[in-house]
Amino acid sequence: MSFSRDSKLEVLQADFEDANCLLAFLSGLFHGCGQITKNSAGLRADLVTDIQDIFDYTNKIAKKLYGDELSIEISDDYIINKTVYYRIMFPVEISSRVLQDCGLLQVGQEVLQINYNIDKNIIPDEETKRAFIKGAYVGCSTSSIKFSELGSQNATTGYHLEFSSHNKVFLEDLKELLTEYSIVSKLLERKSSFVLYLKDSEAIKDMLALVGANESVMNLANEMATRGLRNVVNRQINCINANINKTIEASLKQIKAIKIIDEKIGLDSLPEDLQDVAVLRLANQQESMDELLKLSTIKLTKSGLNHRFKRLIKLADSLTKDDN
Questions:
Q1: C-alpha to C-alpha distances, 103 to 185, 217, 274, nearest whole angstrom
Q2: Phi, psi angles (nearest 5°) of residue 123
Q3: Among 149, 212, 237, 324, which is most exposed with the fewest C-beta within 10 angstroms?
């Protein structure tokens, strides 16, 4: 199961009692994944989806509002990336009425006209607006969010949720509708379709809360916390590794300088303060400056110890230059 699919199934767990909300939900669903076909038998409204559970949900709505039942079949036209798609078919006898009730079809003087805009009459209040958004979410939203493991070092994808449709007008209206709930989205064209997308994690959480996917909100919040903690751990590890490398590099440079001095003039020729730190470093070649201070019997600060090593390195450099 995917995060996107789980959130849709969660939306489908809640039922609507009000007939206006049922129509608003159907309208959003038809805008998201609906198809209208016409043949000798008449006009038929279909829904094409990879979520079979939508059939039971919409079938209950059809029974309640129209006293009729729907049918379902596997859609041969839609088998993408080994995903099975289902065609949910409304009876021809009620299809035209359903589409008109949902604000998608206008009939006048024997001419049928499809309304690609969201019919404002379908969403006159807060409840119907939320119901419409739920239908659109179930119908045409996808998400690439993948959950990570706290101990994993593998990079995870960012936060991305989108509504895709061939109908730009619908997505423009949906964008405006989401703005009423302070959910900021962006619209772009992708090949032969259009995409309304959200990439901000907080906006996605608000979107999930709006459609009633509260468990998905909690799961996303946990994922955000996991990624945040993992990023902190990674930064700490990187910082530790950087300090280790810095310590090793400094130690090697100091040891090299001390060996050059010992070879050229002997450590006995050094002042006592430099002899002490030279012997201390040679005896503890892998220790950091802090550890050297703990091991030393000399009362020195870290800056004082570092200053003496710099004097040794400077002396080694001068001895090397004299040879050249």
A1: 24, 31, 90
A2: -125, 65
A3: 324
